[in-house]
Each structure stands twice: as structure tokens, then as C-alpha cells.
Amino acid sequence: MPGSSRTHNLGPALIQTVRSEEPETSQIEIIQALVSKGAAINYFEPRLTNSTPLAFAAIGNRIESMRFLLASGAGPNLHDGEFIALIATIRSKNMDIARALVDAGADVHVLEFKRLYTILVFCGTAELLRLLLERGIDPNLEDRDG
């Protein structure tokens, strides 16, 4: 289908836009235009990137872009097991983005693939820990090291 191929081809442009150094106000306009033209909101190409547009927006602290992507149907739990938006957000201690991700359904029990660490390993503030506990994380959850 021609439309399907064209939509798929907009995925890399969406990721490049989210990863760009553009001011977020300019970036979000481009993201909105790409999504309105049918860009695949959950585009993932392992040979080119390690994650989705949403993960790149979260990791880049682009909260308005991230909120737009979530409102447009981006999945907060899509990842390759290595580049995980919620873990990266917890590592950077960005409470607003962490809250937006868990509010959108991000799995607080996610494990980092390579080391199988729980998200609690990266939780460096009481506020983030409280958020995860409120969302049901098991404080006794063990990683591969116990």
C-alpha cells in the first residue's frame, strides 16, 4: 500500500525531530505536522535507533513533545530492553517526566535488559521513590544480583 509505506517513511523523520537540538516550541510544531501526515507514533527501527520517539522525548527532557506523543497514542512501555524511557528518566531524576510516564501506564517493574536491574537501583531521590511506591512497585523486587 502506498500510504502505508509513506507513513512508515515518516518514522525516521519523527525520531530525528525529537532528537534534534531545536527549541521545544519549534520541535513540537514539526512533530505535530509529521503526526498529522501519518508518521508512525511508535516507530522503532533497531538498525537505526534503540527506541521510540516517546523515549527520545522523555530522555531529552522534552515534556511537551512527550505529552503530545502520549496524547497521540505513543506506548510508554515500548523498548528494546536496553533503552527504556522510564529508567532513563529516573536516572536523570526528572520528576515531571517520570510522573507523566507512569500516569500514561509505564511499567514500574521494568528491568534493564543487559544487567537486569530493577528501576529502584536508579531511584536517587525520595520524591521519585515515593512516586514508584505509590504506583505499586514492590520494594523487595530483586534484580539478578539479589
Automatic annotation (TrEMBL):
KW Transferase (keyword) present: no
Listed SUPFAM superfamilies: Ankyrin repeat
Matching Pfam families: Ank
Keyword check for GTP-binding: no
PROSITE patterns assigned to the protein according to its UniProt record, in alphabetical order: ANK_REP_REGION, ANK_REPEAT
Keywords on record: ANK repeat
ANK repeats mapped onto the chain: 49-81
Protein name in the entry: Ankyrin repeat-containing domain protein
UniProt source species: Mycena albidolilacea
